[in-house]
Write a structure and sequence with these properties.
Two copies of one chain form a homodimer. With 357 residues, chain A is α+β, with helices and mostly antiparallel strands. Chain A contains 13 helices and seven strands. In chain A, the strands form two sheets. A five-stranded antiparallel β-sheet of chain A has the order 1-2-3-7-6, with helices on one face. In chain A, strands 4-5 form a two-stranded antiparallel sheet. In chain A, a hairpin with a 7-residue loop joins strand 1 (36-39) and strand 2. The radius of gyration of chain A is 22 Å and the shape is globular. Chain A starts with 10 loop residues before the first helix and ends with a helix. The relative contact order of chain A is 0.10. Chains A and B meet through helix 6, helix 7, helix 9 and helix 12 of A and helix 6, helix 7, helix 9 and helix 12 of B.
């Protein structure tokens, strides 16, 4: 059967699709008899199938015209799959050790075929919730962040390449709007998608909605998000990376003191290592095609140092802002825990981290 | 003769082109016998022809593959004409009283046909140099700035429309790079395009090239230029408008005290009126499709006022930065006057204006 137009997959269609696609069928050794197919239930946005055969495995991800975890009532273009595939392929080129390979992308079907990281690999979030300490986490995350962020910025790219990428990623506006709504809007207004532990947190929720100064800061971050992140992607991962960890801090009320300490250490190490690796890449490429700081102008060690210090300080400032916001909106939405304590905890930790810097 | 591919115009070709183009020939009443054609010599980038007949007139503007005032040694894509026509048409829709009509655009020929503003109209710069006081200047410039800036920003547009425009204007990267080079790079490094009154200003030129803190500020403005101006256009005009006037201040050493006062008054009025008109548009459209400040979040008079104050203050801050920079680079490049005095003058005036605010 040919897949000449978009069709949402089910297991039967999925097998037909793989059979018809050499770049996928070859990964499972062209064996279709003993396939195990599992739709992974925890995707927020997309449908994700793990396909395991006797001689190989793949992951197939398909975007439908709506947000999976909400349903057809929140429509969203399938084109998000295109931008995801684009980013994955680019990031893999920049950091092959920490980004899975994309075997196949089909824009018409909004379908990505990619490497399945077999057990004992699990999703990091699950590992952290289970209290596992990963001694190399900071090393790996900082490596990924430094390489992908540096190499997609104007510190490395010419304005020509950069603008081309910006124009391309402007097409991903719907997904950006979705994130903007979840992070910058809904928690600060009445919305059907807000959930909290009622009645215990009712007053807190109201206090947030009435905090003018907080809302002004939110507007500031939202404007940065639109201009820098959406289009340029260059800071996005830094806030995602740091905030994934920060999110976990917010849950540490239920775990051991020693694990809390490991998390905080890892958070601090991640920034320290990222700082080191990012500035090392900068030093290494400062005579290259990046157009942010023209070498003939920023031409002595003192100014180079001043410029780097300012850049990294601003980046850290933004990272804390987005990280804090992300934690905050997650707490509102996932409704996992009592909030005021955790927020206080997160705020204190971020404050401490800022002091360290 | 058909114009099926790009050809640089001369007078003969120009007449043929107009004859073959009804939207142009109709403007001069289809009379070709008594045409006067004058190539206006003062274009920096393009060739500009004024075509006057017995029953009408037009302006024809053509972009070649290089920058006119420098020559073929500085190549630049002709596509800049496309973006100019796009912006002109859009701005005319937003502010028909102060933007000339585009009669015709030919992308293949990089050619714009537009209204000729007949005498007594002259180019504003020339009027200012001649010492003419225009009592309505602040009123008109502020009107144009408020309407075009507000209506192309996220205060008025949805993110969808906005991103589409950003993606489109990313294509204008070469012209943006040219401006960036002239304004943010060349004055701060050794460049063949720098001119100054040597040997009198040699030490000043050197001092600029060695001022680390100035160069750090320049980098900051350049980064704003790339993210906000190039792509979004929304602040561009404010800095152009204000800085055109600021440029004139720099030349007031040679004119009457009363004219200096008129210029400063106009500069101040321009900002004051712009502020008033821009915030009025904002109030008027605050329940509209603009997505920067969602009404359900920014939902009480106090926060609306705080948000507007912050926005306008930041905008003013940026405007002064770009205005100052623009004057500075113009002084370097045009080499019109002795510099240190004028800079001091401009700096003082801008400082005063900032205090007023």
């Amino acid at each position: 059967m040919a897949f000449t137009e978009f069709r949402p997959l089910d297991e039967k269609l999925l097998i037909e699709y793989i059979k018809a696609t050499p770049s996928l069928s070859s990964k499972i050794g062209n064996q279709f008899d003993d396939l195990t197919i599992k739709e992974v239930g925890d995707g927020n946005l997309n449908f994700v199938y793990i396909v395991v055969g006797t001689s190989g495995s793949i992951v197939i991800k398909q975007a439908l015209e709506y947000i999976r975890c909400i349903g057809e009532s929140w429509p969203m273009t399938r084109e998000r799959a295109y931008f995801e595939a684009l980013a994955l392929k680019e990031h893999r080129q920049l950091c092959p050790d920490h980004v899975p390979e994309v075997y196949h992308f089909d824009r018409r079907m909004s379908l990505i075929g990619m490497r399945f990281l077999e057990p004992p690999h699990i999703i990091l979030r699950k590992g952290l919730i289970a209290g596992i300490e990963y001694p190399l986490l900071a090393e790996h995350i900082s490596e990924y962040m430094a390489k992908t962020l540096f190499c997609t910025s104007l510190l490395y790219r010419s304005t020509m390449e950069h603008k081309r990428a910006v124009a391309e990623f402007c097409g991903n506006v719907e997904l950006c709007n979705h994130t903007a709504r979840v992070v910058f809007s809904d928690p600060y207004r009445v919305s059907q998608y807000n959930h909290w532990t009622s009645p215990y947190l009712d007053r807190d929720v109201e206090a947030v909605r009435e905090d003018n100064y907080l809302k002004i800061e939110i507007a500031e971050l939202k404007s940065k998000y639109y201009f820098f992140l959406c289009s340029v992607k260059e800071l996005k991962l830094s806030y995602m990376g740091i905030s994934t960890l920060a999110l976990v801090i917010s849950g540490v009320g239920i775990v051991l003191q020693s694990y809390k300490e490991w998390i905080l250490r890892t958070l601090e190490e991640t920034w320290t290592l990222f700082h080191k690796k990012f500035t090392a890449l900068w030093d290494q490429h400062k005579g290259g095609s990046g157009e942010a700081y023209v070498p003939e102008i920023y031409n002595n060690p003192e100014i180079q140092q001043l410029v780097q210090q300012k850049f990294m300080k601003d980046l850290f400032h933004d990272t804390l802002g987005f990280g804090g916001l992300w934690v905050w909106s997650m707490l509102r939405i996932l409704n996992q825990l009592r909030m005021p304590e955790n927020e206080q905890l997160v705020n204190n930790k971020l404050l401490n981290l800022q002091k360290c810097f």
